[in-house]
């Protein structure tokens, strides 16, 4: 049987407001992760490992922060003369589907004509704010054999978090009910925002929804498209039991990093059989553990310099922890500096922040310090600095 013509569409245009200060001036998929990576590295690496050559990225919010990292697709072998990486931006024109998009449903419909022109056998649509490994090519083959319009990847989450997702009820592989972000979820089996679509029937339903509601009211895929296809009996479930973490909130982002520095990290970012690739940063030497440094259960990225105490924490590229400084249960993004005598506990410190005082000393909610700030006063548990108003 010939190999499927598979297209992966990564929806990377959302504002990512749940990550608060971390996405005030960068796209959510561009948020650093695990010291050396960015969130978009996970779907792109899944494409590389699955040997999928045609990958489109739909951008919108703060696109420059992501475009530099993409490097024309080179780190994931997508810098090709034919096919490879295609970055899609909001555009003006006379055709339907142009302009800025208000949700993932409109984001998909706005690319409908391009998708029809490309004519893939399978369209894999994914978000870019989760940490996981998944073979999209094998999933597409499974979808073809099933003969349904949609394959929806499902996984179980903490019952207290289920209301953040589309909650599904299944009978075997058949999805019998799909409810998007319900107030009172019936269970904790959710759609993890990885879908395989048979393009034409799905796009036809989107066209019908546009006629009924208008382009601006399509909202997210889960609001109208997926419930309608579920009611038509066209949605099947692929149960995913591997490691999957949505890191689209501050608590989830922090927790995922703490899992990486636990005794048994749940995901290997350097697995030779399924590596998570990223754009290499030039001129970054090995990390330096200087005299007096004490490190226990930590990830330390290239270019970091540690002379203080680091425990259960993740230090990004170029982070500096001076003598007498303490970092514990925290995530320091690239370029952060913790000055001598300062203590950072239970906190997330953004790019190029200089900490001269104690941050997040009290146990409890995570303290968050935003881009390029200088901290000279104590921050209580759960503090946000600087204060940034929503646009």
TrEMBL record:
Keyword Nucleotidyltransferase: yes
UniProt GO MF annotations: glucose-1-phosphate adenylyltransferase activity
InterPro entries xref list: ADP-Glc_PPase, GlmU/GlgC-like_hexapep, NTP_transferase_dom, Nucleotide-diphossugar_trans, Trimer_LpxA-like_sf
GO biological process: glycogen biosynthetic process
Start and end residues of each Nucleotidyl transferase domain: 9-260
A Pfam family that the UniProt record links to this protein: NTP_transferase
Keywords annotated in UniProt: Glycogen biosynthesis, Nucleotidyltransferase, Transferase
UniProt KW Repeat keyword: no
TM region(s), chain numbering: none
Signal peptide feature range: none
Domain named Glucose-1-phosphate adenylyltransferase/Bifunctional protein GlmU-like C-terminal hexapeptide: residues: 295-358
The family this protein is said to belong to: Belongs to the bacterial/plant glucose-1-phosphate adenylyltransferase family.
PANTHER family, alphabetized: GLUCOSE-1-PHOSPHATE ADENYLYLTRANSFERASE (PTHR43523:SF2), GLUCOSE-1-PHOSPHATE ADENYLYLTRANSFERASE-RELATED (PTHR43523)
Protein name: Glucose-1-phosphate adenylyltransferase
Organism the protein comes from: Solirubrobacter pauli
Organismal lineage: Bacteria, Bacillati, Actinomycetota, Thermoleophilia, Solirubrobacterales
